[in-house]
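Exercise 7. Given the components listed, write out the predicted structure of the assembled complex. Treat all entries as one system.
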Amino acid sequence: MSLIVQKFGGSSVANAESIKRVAKRIVETRKAGNEVVVAVSAMGDTTDDLLDLAHAVAPIPAPREMDMLLSAGERISMALLAMAIESLGHDARSFTGSQAGMITDARHGAARIVDVTPVRLREALDEGAIVIVAGFQGFNRDTKDITTLGRGGSDTTAVALAAALNADICEIYTDVDGIFTADPRVVPKASKIDRITSEEMLELAANGAKVLYIRAVEYARRHGVTLHVRSSFNNNEGTIVYNPSETEPAVEEPMIAGVATDLSEAKITVVGVPDIPGKAAQIFTIVAKTGANIDMIVQNVSAASTGLTDISFTLPKSEGQLVLTALRAEQEETGFKALQYDDQIGKLALVGAGMRTNAGVSAKLFTALFDAGINIEMISTSEIRISVVTRADTINDALRVVHTAFGLDADEEAVVHAGTGR
Amino acid sequence: MSLIVQKFGGSSVANAESIKRVAKRIVETRKAGNEVVVAVSAMGDTTDDLLDLAHAVAPIPAPREMDMLLSAGERISMALLAMAIESLGHDARSFTGSQAGMITDARHGAARIVDVTPVRLREALDEGAIVIVAGFQGFNRDTKDITTLGRGGSDTTAVALAAALNADICEIYTDVDGIFTADPRVVPKASKIDRITSEEMLELAANGAKVLYIRAVEYARRHGVTLHVRSSFNNNEGTIVYNPSETEPAVEEPMIAGVATDLSEAKITVVGVPDIPGKAAQIFTIVAKTGANIDMIVQNVSAASTGLTDISFTLPKSEGQLVLTALRAEQEETGFKALQYDDQIGKLALVGAGMRTNAGVSAKLFTALFDAGINIEMISTSEIRISVVTRADTINDALRVVHTAFGLDADEEAVVHAGTGR
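Answer.
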């Protein structure tokens, strides 16, 4: 008997009809002879509605109470889902994050899982029940308080349960057919990826692919959980995200997995930095203190005549003002001339195995962009990724030409559904 | 320093504005130097909305999951209330029924409190925080499952907390100014009762007064908790429901506390019962097996010529068909001739101390009704109550004439708000 963990996002359980549809799907998996554990998000707009209420009663809602409030969302969806399954004649039991043994640290709103003790889930499974768990939420042992895991928390819940219960697979149900070689809303001929390593998936997610959250993929990679990202609207096979065994032969030829784009970042350029040892360290120490998530860093070649250089880096737009303020406060001590802030950039990342060792990949990427008249402003590479920064308004063109240049276009156009999850 | 428990029902926290208003009121009590524990119901229509969802996904929702679902309602209101208080600059912490130590039996949907262990509440109070507790919900130690207390559960939560924390008073906030001598919607000159014993309050509640639930009053009486029923819309003194000390002198003159009416009952008459010993016992054994809540019982004088008698009793309309079916199934064995079912009855109860020992009270009651042309169909008395059954369509007239006859009319008309709580 296999143990399957299934995750359904908010758009899959948006109303009573959707919940009944998902219940049928879960029962089919059980009938096929599997043990089933389900992680479920709050229904559709519930979380947004609760956030609106919170801000209507308090300008800055207390974080502990915010978590208490938001955790009501999954409580509703999981109880309804369990009821719907029971009315189909199968035993089902819902469990809160705390009941499921999802132990976290005490950071309200962005808690990290520190332990999973699914004793009650294992008992319920042994008694033949289908287990429904509230996604997104946990429990801190010291404060005894409810916590939430932040963005993508339900994905992380599912993966953590799969790891703790030693599940055979963790199915992430979503409103698209799987992971695509590019965003199908921009590149209609994007093709579904059948198999991708967790490392490549991590790069795609970190570079703007929205289907899976980075934290969930990281957790899956660290704990050896295999993911199956698939649609809740059909029975098609989706995308398997796997951890290659160490004995698997290394890739000789570059294998492009996909292309991701991201418009959520901004670029800060520190202009006229004295080109003496330790200056870059000084600047990034200031930035690090703000807690900002720096992505790409480029240092220009110093002009010999001035002894000054420019340092550029990208970071989420939401953190831009914070970092600018921190740098300005230390301008005199650091000795730079000026700061430039540019929030009209787009980032494109080409992800796949064997990339760095094959110079032809970069050449083909740069040529495709040049032929399309798209200017490259920054470049960064890793073992399995090449990222470039362009103007924001050219990013979709860039995505299409790169997708075509690397032979990723499918014969038919992909079907796209709308929706978001948490 | 006094410890005050305050209960706010669903209509008092129906939206963000109401929640902010209630938060201010709670903070005022804290600022006056009191420790404050608040029991809160779900916002306005939340419970009805959740019930609708449950019935949309499952024809007969599983009771365990129903409790899990409904308990989300107070989780939302209590977190919002705590946020609103914190934004007024006071430390506040919300606790679920389980966190508050509200231990119940395992009867989902109608759980009984078996123990209250408010360790975390006492800690939070000692740290200077205002404590907000989810009304209506508890936790079963054996199954480790969430339970709900059923109708009036939030009142019961408040009273149980007041008893366990040895509170000085338990304030029940509602949308009326207190307990009235009669329903002000029917008797505009009904007057607010300043003080009433818990025993009298119990009779009023049991006979149709909707402001307080019987279970909460019973709990308060058993544990010696003093209640203060008052409006959340003004600062007027409401009604004190107290437990008279044993040394208090017995009442000599009848003191009428109030008049309650109830249209929720029906009358079943078992016609032509053989007038031999044991027949009544046989009939009520059948009725008892259905679990129905029998109220008034009247056995007619037997007609000597036939050796047959009629037995009538009242019970909630919702239990009528169940009891009729049970009686019909045993008709042959019991030997009665027929069953009559009458759901067009109204019940009026006059409540007050020293009632039975003063024959003048019954005489005045019957005379008032006779003068108004209202026929009495059944009569039942207790130490502090006289109840009569009339036609349903005469009950409001009956209420008004009795209220006037016993000198209960106030000089001014009462102000009435609409709304319900749970």
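Discussion: Chain A has twelve helices and 20 strands. The interface with chain B takes residues 16, 19-20, 23, 50, 53-54, 56-62, 64-66, 68-69, 71-73, 75-76, 78-84, 86-87, 92-94, 99, 120, 144 of chain A (CB under 8 Å).
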